[in-house]
Amino acid sequence: MALTAEQSAQSFYTALAGKFKTYEKTFLRLAEDEARHAATYSELLRTEGRVATSKDKEIAESRIRALVGMGIMDALKGPDVSEVEDLRAAVELALKLEQNTLLFYQNLLLYFANGYQDQIHKIVDVEYDHMLQLSRIDYFE
Q: What is the CATH number of the domain that holds 89?
């Protein structure tokens, strides 16, 4: 799910870069971050011993099922850029995407054993930075 979310976010930001040339560099930078995150999750999936205790795994799976039930996981499969009419709508959609991603990753942290949580914490830090970058975009210019 995390790998799919990151790949979708990468495609989303790449499409926004093509649509809003004024912020092309910003959106491409966000897309590059998402590509790196996808690579990290891909590596974690290949690593043995990455899962936390059975109790933590059970809690994480329960919370993620709740996110699925709320439609948050579907929202992470990628917003439709063709429906974005202006920069304000793009930023609002991107902020919502980042918020949903953070909610998912906060719960995903429980799933991984301590040695692997550091990598996810780094990704979470970058996702928070994305929110800050997006919130600084002046869509009234």
A: 1.20.1260.10
